[in-house]
Amino acid sequence: MKLLVRAPIIEERLKELEMYFEEVVYDPWTITGERYYEDEMIEALKKHQPDVLITELDRITEKVIANYDKLQVIGDCRANPANIDVVACEKAGIPILCTPARNAQAVAEMLVGLVINFMRNILPSVEWIKNGEWVKGATPYYLWMGNELQGKKVGFIGFGAVGRSAAKILEACGCKIYFYDPYVDFVKEEYTKCGVDEIFKNSDIVSIHLPVLDSTKGMINADLFAKMKETAIFVNTARSEVVDEAALMKVLKNKCIKGAILDVLEVEPPTKEALAIGKLSNVLLTPHICGATYEVTDHQSDIITERLIKWLNKEDMEKIIYNKSVL
Prior knowledge:
Layout: E1 2-5, H1 11-18, E2 23-26, H2 38-48, E3 52-55, H3 62-67, E4 73-76, H4 86-92, E5 96-97, H5 104-119, H6 122-130, H7 140-143, E6 153-157, H8 161-172, E7 176-180, E8 191-193, H9 196-202, E9 205-208, H10 222-225, E10 233-236, H11 245-253, E11 259-262, E12 283-285, H12 294-312, H13 317-320
Parallel strand pairs: 1-2, 1-3, 3-4, 4-5, 6-7, 6-9, 7-8, 9-10, 10-11, 11-12
Helix pairs in contact: 1-12, 5-8
């Protein structure tokens, strides 16, 4: 069998895969910094003729599946295969293997860092110094006074791997943890399960960790924002599609909440219109990099290699295959 690897994989794991495949073509998107879209992906598949594909960013659409029918399995170095047409794969009988929790620690650490940054006014205070405004008579101690995390109520909407990793760090800072997740009933005594409305009403920090499903698109809407405290902070390091961005823009412009921390936008890269929310004074915006660490490559290498070997050996198929309907 032949394997085409379009995601970055550490050398140790690549050598391990070479023991299971007759040929491994290593051509990760990181070489050029660009993903393949439909036509480029079809061209690459026809050129290399793989039986198995490992990808991360490439678009695997219905057209790709229709134009290349030799794939037996696709490994996707993501928690959810947002870059793959799952329905098309199911119709073609192609199983998809994902890498859940590959970036959970990365996102959790940056989320907490961004919250501290926002609450302690770190970025504006640094710019203030660089602009030469720390002069005799200035009182930065009072000008840039912020808030501590200790004692704050943090509400998670969605409590999977990222939410739990962030909660662990925030709990160590003395925060009180609340969560809503229809698939999670209990984590530990110190964490309280609540309804969505209750979390938005009572939390000092509301953090979104929802997948994009028909049931979650636009779920975070104006009604929920209206329940938030004026001192509350809204955080979205998950997906923009689950938030009504126009409603969020309105509450931020009107200073109905303290502010927002965003790592995702409705349009990426942003148009001038999409970037408007990031230019608000009470918004801390980063360019979808919360999961961007070198260690994530290590994690995804381990997970996808282990899952692919299990697939080859037909082990734990119910656990490792994302689209279980192909079984």
